[in-house]
């Protein structure tokens, strides 16, 4: 190691080397003292990072000679390498900002796209703030590569195409997989590559702006960095076009793709220097890294095992016959898939005469014509094709082009083919290029179809893309997997995450074979656990047929058999089963003498076609039509949702469509004219709960003399109006639309915008647990208030009172409060009129529902209840699905038009506490009683509550022999999957009618197992781990009170995997962890499952948490352990158990335990980072844990001893000798489980301490205070019981008093802060969010953040489960407002979920820390001294011994005895 003095090297010149290791490329830059670039280059590393870096360094050595360099590494893949080379590492953003500040100091915003990351960096008066893509890699370089491969080109080719575009299509870039499903139909419908390329770039722009800016507008001078923006001129042009930048504000940079490398060179350290040769030697030594990505067992243990596997599968063959020798009639089947076209020709006995499988190459029609020409060239004389059938994605196009005889939905075709191989088949699993299907067969009909919805595809094409990126062919890549030693575990999340997991594994030296085998496992895990959602693969069925091109890959098939623990049948024609099935259908439909309509070969040879695109102007859907014109004047139009696009009238057969009726009924009121509206104009956004309550608000304001300005029907253009202020990229589309509607209203200059927050909806359903609105519906107006700039600046007025529609009185009181400027009597009259009008509108809809049912009976027709939320009426949200259904001749009803006819058997397994959902359950209960109705549930992507409802609706329907269909919808309007679902449902209904099956109607009532007094004596009660510091004290408390409670300590990765198996995967991360821990423990064999119970807290609030108890019961049922009682601990009286009671004795001890735990948390986290003797803090902690447990389990633990212990404990910690090196303090707030459970937040506290920071975590007791405090607000504003509020107030007083001993000791201490009172925290939150935000952590989360900032902790990690509903509002939603009020605040929101990449979390946390370190340094310089920021430390030399002697255990024994005397 030549660690020489720089002045001696090369005549005193200082050369710095910057290395940037990205997710796909390695970049280096060598600078001289004046920061001139001497050498720079960039190479793709195909996961061989060390070799690529060596090559780059060798090139620079040849050019510059053996210089002595001062190296610095940066980039998402650089950290492990930096540690191994002994080279310093700098955070990417810091290096980029260093380079920008020197080379382009005018920059206000830098947009950087990399291989898998997208970042926006804002520079505001010296403060650097960065947004990074969190859990989704849509719209990054790898996304562009994926899209380019769809168009059979590369990124540079895409750029060339985009130069000549004519029109843009909307494509979702939120996820590569969605975009695929948007682009594929366009390719199939013949869109030009030029237009597609430009649209892909536009999608990237939209994704970056809406997904990353998250409510922070991009203004001023903008610099574009990173490979994609450097090499793709059209992508950059799309950004400039969308951001409306002129030349002055677009910063042109020469080496924009090398900025991180240049910046890291500028940050190099003087004291680290190597010669070029040293660097290359170090690299060539080969670096062994430890495994961080988990590994799985090999696919095949030995060659013999593989041979046996091959032989078994080679036996499933279709009977073939050579075409040239065949005589007789034959039948043609065409399967036009999304990426490939398959053709099969079968004889009269079903033998396969000809098969064809080829990529579409962008034109399915051309491909099919080629195949048919090929058949005819081989047909012997006298052999005729007498009937034909098409199926698959392009079924209608093929049928129209060749005038085929039949067309059948693909699921039915697949079933026909599978039944040919195995008549008893009960499950078909089909994994194709980009779709997955699981078809369940019951009594010879298709019973249910599951398709991959919006997300998680990337099935076959994903493996292909991966093989390409590693320079492998698909076949070689698949072969490599078979004998891999350590397949990597890629989990079951979005395919792009897998990219980052794979990258991480590659950095750890995983072989290509390990990656290939890992992918094979993950494709199957994705299919089983994410798409089909089986907890246990044995649920699939006993006779499974697998098909689809992906199963040709032996590794995938083997991993399926391993995971599903079964032997599947893979037909040798797995890839063309659809076409084979279609041909068999044609054969079955043929009757002698039938004349086929199919074109003759001469007509096909002469067939010319041209494709053009048009937009239908029939309604706001603006469907994109593809018009295929064939020779002879025929044309085929696709892309339309209703008949109008074909030039026919809409809904010609006049089938009732209640979606249409209800929209008119709700919104066709005439507002007052301007001259009559003497009080002014009020704007109402047409969003979320307005689809339920608009008649009320319209009448209310009109009666008061306002002109009501309602925003127009949603369109994509309205969505784009509000895109800049959306704070969270993962919330549902209906919520995102609200920003656009409000933006539209602001442009209308109304006097004020009225958008109330309705906590409780009307209590419509008797017997429901509650009548909340969903957290997003309730408090979305808060997001508007905190993120729409015009409102923040006071240019527009938003009034959003929190109120309840529990009854007219409660609503009226709230309105009188809100409109104090109006006479109360007038408000009261207007409210009464509004209430009456709202009731009338509900009655009308019910009446209409009954009329439609009469119509069905009279005309012997079928109807579909298209059930969702009120706002699914919005055509921009439902994308015309109702019209699609009526086009098949079925009537469409809404859930609220039939809910009053249904009777739900209660109690349900779920906590039935949301009014819209109670209605959903009632509608389902009605549908199950009728044979002429079926239900399809609409489910918005990202809707957390539907994790609860979809399972419940499924139970109600399938429990009584009905078919359950659920359609996931979001901003993407491609209806391919919806069409397949609806047609499969229709096919199944037809089959059922043919068979005249009798259904039995079963009750869905939950018979819960009650925990009895007898059980208490001998049952072990399992409790999931939430906060180790607290729970080790609470466990003995319960045991001292006569229970046998065990806290489960398996909160690890295995528990999460177990959770994925047993919980609906849309459920939030905490519920996965909780259920996973419980199931893992119960299945471990450690407990007697007939002598064990489970305990879980239940708050009864409006988010998903009260449903954890239901999730646990459902999991137990799935595992066949219904006998295990689930005990709910709640204060709301939701459920009670005679054997488990919260007695005063238990509660007092529990509060003691919680206070002790909070003291430990405060003291340990405050002192541990600074301790002089490593381990001294932990020793003190353990010593006191023993004493606390002794106290908590003593006979009568009294208050005096308790206060004394609190005081001594705090003094003891306070006197541990610590250093006075200042460190940044980082607060941790967020969802309660993720905040406290190290397993859930990836050991965040340890991470922060390892990175040189001090963690500050607010108390657990505060959450209890918050729950009590909410009752006070509810009684004042939402009309709940005053008695409850009185009890809550007493509870707050009592707990405050019990905490007072600790509070006093903290106030006296040298190092600690005392806890803040709940009233103070509420007053901190109130200016930002209303105290009415009470779902999840609610206003309390915002309050905690402000409290941290005010007490000097400006850096905060806001931990939240991915897609946590309340956090969209009170977490991510308030960050912008916090920054405005507290410019020093440095908040990063981190999403946690099973698929989140830790590398990404780490990068974002590190960035926050680097800002924290910078701010700390600045503060210390300003105060003119680099010394401790905390209270001064006195008398550190006093030996710690004295203190421990003072409190030795006999004093405690004495005071315990003293307690018993006093309490006696």
Provide an overview of this structure.
The protein has 1464 residues and is of the alpha/beta class. Helices cover 45% and strands 15% of the residues. The chain contains 55 helices and 40 strands. β31 (933-940), α35 (946-958) and β32 (965-969) form a beta-alpha-beta unit. α4 (141-150) runs parallel beside α6 and α29 (808-818) packs across α30. The longest helix is centred in the middle third of the chain and has 36 residues, at 824-859. The termini are far apart. Residues 1-11, 1427-1452 and 1454-1464 have low confidence and may be disordered.
In which range does the helix fraction lie? 40-55%
Mean of residue pLDDT values: 85
Please state the structural category.
alpha/beta
Overall 3D form: globular
Strand content: 5-15%
The radius of gyration is 33 Å
Biggest β-sheet strands, sense, barrel: 5 strands, mixed
Number of strands: 40
Strand order of the largest sheet: 3-2-1-4-10
End-to-end gap: 75 Å
Summed up, the helix count is 55
Highlighted features:
1464 residues; alpha/beta; 55 helices; 40 strands; 45% helix; 15% strand; disordered C terminus
Write the layout of secondary structure elements.
Elements: E1 15-21, E2 25-31, E3 37-44, H1 49-64, E4 68-74, H2 79-85, H3 92-103, E5 109-113, E6 118-124, E7 127-132, H4 141-150, H5 155-162, H6 176-188, H7 193-212, E8 222-225, H8 227-231, H9 233-243, E9 250-251, H10 259-266, E10 274-275, H11 276-284, H12 303-313, E11 329-336, E12 340-346, E13 352-359, H13 364-378, E14 384-391, H14 395-402, E15 406-407, H15 410-421, E16 427-431, E17 436-442, E18 445-451, H16 460-469, H17 474-481, H18 495-507, H19 512-531, E19 544-547, H20 554-564, H21 577-589, H22 601-606, E20 609-615, E21 624-630, E22 635-638, H23 658-667, E23 680-684, H24 690-703, E24 706-710, H25 716-721, H26 733-747, E25 752-754, E26 757-760, H27 775-787, H28 789-792, E27 798-799, E28 802-804, H29 808-818, H30 824-859, E29 863-867, H31 875-878, H32 881-886, E30 891-894, H33 895-898, H34 915-927, E31 933-940, H35 946-958, E32 965-969, H36 976-995, H37 1013-1018, E33 1020-1023, H38 1028-1040, E34 1045-1047, H39 1053-1062, H40 1069-1082, E35 1092-1097, H41 1108-1118, E36 1126-1129, H42 1144-1167, H43 1176-1192, H44 1199-1214, ...
């Amino acid at each position: 190691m030549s660690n020489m003095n720089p002045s001696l090297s090369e005549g005193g010149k200082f050369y710095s080397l910057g290395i940037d290791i990205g997710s796909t490329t390695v970049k280096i830059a060598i600078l001289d003292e004046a920061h001139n670039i001497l050498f720079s280059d960039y190479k793709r590393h195909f996961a061989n990072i060390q070799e690529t870096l060596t090559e780059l360094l060798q090139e620079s050595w040849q050019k510059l000679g053996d210089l002595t360099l001062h190296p610095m590494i940066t980039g998402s893949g650089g950290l492990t390498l930096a540690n191994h080379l002994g080279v310093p590492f700098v955070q990417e953003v810091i290096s980029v900002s260093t380079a920008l500040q020197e080379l382009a100091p005018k920059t206000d915003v830098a947009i950087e796209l990399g291989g898998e990351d997208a970042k926006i960096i804002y520079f505001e008066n010296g403060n650097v703030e960065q947004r990074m893509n969190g859990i989704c890699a849509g719209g990054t370089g790898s996304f562009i590569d994926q899209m380019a491969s769809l168009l059979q080109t590369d990124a540079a080719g895409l750029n060339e195409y985009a130069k000549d575009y004519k029109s843009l299509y909307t494509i979702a870039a939120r996820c590569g997989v969605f975009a695929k499903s948007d682009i594929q139909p366009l390719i199939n419908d013949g869109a030009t590559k030029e237009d597609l390329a430009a649209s892909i770039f536009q999608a990237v722009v939209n994704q970056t702006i809406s997904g990353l800016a998250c409510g922070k507008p991009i203004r001023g001078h903008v610099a574009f960095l990173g490979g994609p923006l450097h090499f793709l001129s059209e992508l950059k042009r799309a950004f400039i076009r969308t951001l409306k930048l002129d030349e002055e504000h677009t910063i042109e940079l020469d080496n924009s793709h090398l900025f991180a490398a240049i910046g890291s060179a500028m940050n190099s350290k003087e004291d680290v220097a190597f010669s070029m040769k040293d660097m290359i030697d170090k690299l060539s030594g080969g670096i062994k890294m430890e495994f961080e990505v988990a590994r799985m067992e090999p696919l095949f243990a030995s060659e013999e095992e593989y041979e046996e596997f091959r032989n078994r599968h080679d036996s499933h063959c279709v009977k073939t016959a050579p075409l040239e020798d065949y005589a007789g009639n034959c039948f043609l089947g065409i399967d036009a898939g999304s990426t490939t076209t398959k053709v099969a020709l079968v004889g009269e006995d079903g033998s396969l005469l000809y098969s064809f499988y080829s990529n579409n190459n962008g034109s399915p029609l051309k491909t099919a014509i080629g195949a048919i020409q090929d058949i005819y060239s081989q047909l012997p004389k006298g052999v005729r094709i007498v009937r034909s059938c098409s199926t698959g994605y392009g079924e209608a196009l093929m049928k129209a082009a060749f005038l085929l005889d039949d067309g059948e939905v693909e699921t039915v075709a697949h079933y026909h083919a599978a039944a040919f191989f195995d008549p008893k088949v009960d499950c078909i699993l089909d994994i194709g290029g980009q779709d997955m299907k699981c078809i369940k067969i019951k009594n010879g009909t298709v019973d249910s179809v599951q398709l991959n919805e919006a997300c998680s595809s990337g099935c076959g094409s994903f493996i292909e893309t991966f093989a390409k990126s590693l320079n492998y062919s698909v076949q070689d890549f698949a072969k490599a997997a078979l004998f891999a030693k350590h397949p990597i575990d890629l989990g079951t999340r979005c395919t792009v995450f897998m990219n980052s997991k794979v990258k991480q594994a590659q950095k750890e030296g995983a072989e290509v074979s390990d990656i290939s085998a890992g992918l094979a496992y993950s494709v199957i895990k994705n299919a089983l656990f994410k798409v089909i959602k089986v907890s246990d693969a044995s649920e699939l069925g006993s006779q499974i047929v697998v098909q689809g091109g992906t199963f040709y890959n032996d590794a995938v098939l083997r991993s399926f058999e391993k995971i599903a623990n079964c032997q599947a049948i893979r037909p040798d024609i797995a890839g063309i089963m659809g076409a084979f099935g279609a041909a068999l259908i044609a054969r079955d439909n043929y009757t002698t003498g039938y004349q086929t309509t199919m074109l003759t070969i001469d007509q096909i040879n002469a067939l010319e076609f041209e494709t053009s695109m048009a937009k239908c102007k029939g309604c706001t859907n603006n469907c994109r039509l593809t018009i295929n014109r064939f020779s002879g004047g025929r044309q085929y139009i696709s892309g339309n949702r209703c008949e109008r696009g074909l030039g026919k009238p809409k809904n010609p057969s006049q089938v009732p469509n209640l979606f249409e009726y209800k929209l008119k009924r709700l919104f066709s009121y005439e507002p007052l004219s301007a001259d009559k509206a003497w009080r002014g104009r009020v704007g109402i956004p047409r969003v979320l709960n307005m689809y339920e309550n608009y008649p009320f608000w319209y009448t209310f304001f009109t009666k008061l003399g306002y002109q009501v300005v309602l925003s127009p029907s949603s369109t994509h253009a309205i969505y784009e109006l509000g895109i800049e202020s959306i704070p969270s990229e993962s919330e549902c589309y209906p919520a995102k639309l609200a920003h656009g509607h409000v933006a539209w209203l602001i442009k209308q200059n109304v006097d004020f915008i009225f958008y109330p927050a309705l906590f409780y909806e009307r209590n419509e359903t008797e017997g429901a647990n509650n009548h909340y609105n969903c957290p997003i519906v309730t408090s979305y107006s808060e997001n508007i208030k905190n993120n729409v700039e015009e409102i923040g600046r006071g240019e527009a007025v938003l009034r959003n009172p929190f109120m309840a529609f529990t009854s007219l009185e409660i609503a009226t009181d709230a309105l009188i409060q809100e409109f104090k400027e109006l006479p109360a009597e007038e408000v009261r009259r207007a409210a009464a009129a509004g209430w009456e009008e709202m009731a009338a509108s509900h009655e009308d809809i019910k009446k209409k529902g009954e009329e439609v049912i009469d119509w069905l009976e009279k005309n012997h027709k079928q109807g579909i209840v298209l059930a969702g939320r009120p706002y699914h009426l919005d055509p921009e949200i439902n994308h015309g699905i109702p019209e699609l259904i009526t086009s098949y001749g079925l009537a469409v009803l809404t859930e609220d038009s039939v809910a009053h006819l249904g009777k739900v058997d209660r109690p349900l397994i779920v906590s039935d506490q949301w009014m819209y959902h109670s209605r959903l359950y009632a509608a389902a209960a009605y549908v199950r009683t009728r044979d002429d109705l079926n239900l399809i549930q609409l489910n918005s992507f990202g809707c957390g509550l539907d994790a609860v409802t979809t399972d419940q609706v499924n139970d109600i329907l399938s429990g009584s022999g009905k078919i359950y269909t659920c359609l996931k919808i979001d901003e993407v309007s491609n209806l391919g999957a919806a069409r397949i679902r609806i047609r499969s449902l229709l096919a199944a209904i037809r089959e059922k009618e043919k068979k005249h099956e009798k259904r039995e109607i079963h009750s869905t009532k939950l018979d819960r197992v009650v925990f009895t007094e007898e059980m208490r004596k001998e049952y072990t009660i399992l409790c999931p781990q939430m906060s180790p510091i607290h729970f080790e004290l609470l466990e003995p408390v319960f045991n001292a009170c006569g229970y046998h409670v065990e806290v489960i300590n398996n909160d690890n990765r295995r528990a999460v995997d177990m959770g994925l198996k047993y919980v609906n995967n849309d459920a939030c991360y905490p519920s996965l962890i909780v259920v996973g821990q419980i199931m893992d423990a119960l299945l471990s064999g450690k407990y007697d499952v007939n002598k064990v119970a489970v305990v879980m807290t239940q708050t009864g609030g409006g988010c998903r948490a009260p449903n954890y108890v239901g999730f646990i019961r459902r999991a137990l049922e799935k595992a066949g352990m219904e006998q295990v009682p689930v005990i709910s601990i709640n204060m709301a009286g939701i459920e009670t158990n005679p054997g488990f009671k919260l007695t005063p004795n238990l509660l007092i001890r529990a509060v003691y335990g919680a206070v002790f735990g909070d003291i430990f948390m405060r003291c340990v986290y405050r002192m541990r980072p600074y301790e002089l003797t490593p381990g001294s803090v932990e020793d003190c902690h353990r010593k006191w844990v023993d004493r606390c447990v002794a106290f908590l389990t003593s006979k009568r633990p009294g208050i005096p001893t308790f206060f004394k212990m609190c005081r001594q404990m705090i003094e003891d910690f306070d006197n541990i000798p610590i250093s006075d090196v200042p460190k940044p303090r980082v607060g941790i707030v967020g969802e309660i489980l993720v905040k406290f459970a190290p397993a859930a937040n990836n050991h965040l506290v340890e991470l922060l301490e390892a990175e040189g920071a001090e963690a500050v975590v607010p108390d657990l007791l505060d959450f209890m205070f918050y729950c009590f405090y909410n009752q006070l607000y509810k009684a004042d504003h939402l009309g709940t019981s005053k008695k409850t509020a009185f009890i809550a107030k007493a509870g707050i007083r009592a707990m405050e008093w019990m905490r007072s001993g600790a509070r006093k000791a903290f106030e006296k201490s040298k190092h600690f802060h005392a806890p803040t009172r709940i009233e103070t925290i509420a007053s901190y939150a109130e200016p930002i969010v209303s105290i009415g935000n009470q779902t999840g952590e609610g206003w309390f989360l915002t309050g905690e953040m402000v409290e941290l900032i005010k007490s000097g902790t400006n850096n905060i990690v806001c931990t939240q489960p991915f897609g946590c509903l309340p956090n969209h509002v009170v977490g991510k939603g308030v960050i912008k407002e916090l920054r405005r009020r507290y410019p020093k605040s440095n908040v990063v929101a981190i999403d946690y979920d099973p698929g989140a990449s830790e590398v990404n979390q780490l990068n974002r946390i590190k960035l926050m820390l680097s800002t924290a370190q910078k701010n700390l340094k600045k503060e210390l310089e300003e105060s003119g001294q680099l010394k401790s920021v905390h209270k001064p430390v006195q008398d550190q030399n006093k030996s710690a011994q004295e203190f421990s002697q003072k409190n030795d255990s006999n004093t405690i024994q004495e005071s315990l005895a003293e307690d018993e005397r006093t309490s006696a």
